[in-house]
Amino acid sequence: MLDVTEEATVARYQPEARAAVDGILSRGAVPILVGGSGLYVSSVIYDFRFPGTDPVLRERLEAELAAQGPGMLYRRLLEVDPAAAKNIGASNGRRLVRALEVVALTGEPVSASLPEEPVLWRPSAIIGLSAPREELTARLDARVERMWSAGLVDEAAALIPLGLERGVTASRAIGYAQALAELRGDLTRAEAIAQTQQLTRRYARRQVSWFKRYPGIRWLPYDGDGLADGESLTDAAIAAAALDRL
């Protein structure tokens, strides 16, 4: 678990998640990884390797982000790695900083460190749950409304003394960023909810596009027989693995 002031990075997540997977396997149990961010999931199940970091370079890029916003970094990344810029988008400042850092450290596009045909790190059955776009959109919007009803703004307010506003990752997370803006008076509650819904829908579209590229993934309707009745995803994973052997 990270403090709200700590930065969440895939380079840190990968070894910690894999250690957890190995620990579960050593006990004779089946680990289930649920996600989430496509890159973070991929970093665990596929043989991805990530360049290190340079604190001085990172600090300079972060300062440029704070002073000029993500648009400038996005345009710079478009020039050196158009594919990465397209995948990241023009508003994700943290990932733009990391991509430019990797390019500067390696002299290669970010995509060069991600294999075109990834190799599994461990034998795995990969399951995707699908939903009609209209239904998914409605569920995402309702989820955001529940976040506000459940007290997200109060939660953000309670985290401010712990450093939420200084957090590189947490302060920019979808939901927290809008809750903080509401607390500052920059957004009304309706505007904060609407902005979070918009960003959540955009993020979900990127997730769907990312996971559709997975070779061998088995897509199941989220409300299909068995799953809707409470069948465990472990059973679904076993079924998918069996299908792969046919």
UniProtKB/TrEMBL annotation:
Which one of the record's GO molecular function terms can you name?
ATP binding
Among InterPro entries, the record links this protein to: Dimethylallyltransferase, IPT, P-loop_NTPase
Which cofactors must be present for this protein to function?
Answer: Mg(2+)
Q: GO biological process annotations for this chain's record?
A: tRNA modification
Q: Which domain of life is it from?
A: Bacteria
**N-terminal signal peptide:** none
| Protein name per Swiss-Prot or TrEMBL | tRNA dimethylallyltransferase
Name the keywords, alphabetized.
ATP-binding, Magnesium, Nucleotide-binding, Transferase, tRNA processing
Q: Which family does it belong to?
A: Belongs to the IPP transferase family.
One short Pfam family name for this protein?
IPPT
The record's catalysed reaction(s) read:
adenosine(37) in tRNA + dimethylallyl diphosphate = N(6)-dimethylallyladenosine(37) in tRNA + diphosphate
Question: Which Enzyme Commission number(s) are listed?
Answer: 2.5.1.75
Relate the protein's function as given in its record. Catalyzes the transfer of a dimethylallyl group onto the adenine at position 37 in tRNAs that read codons beginning with uridine, leading to the formation of N6-(dimethylallyl)adenosine (i(6)A).
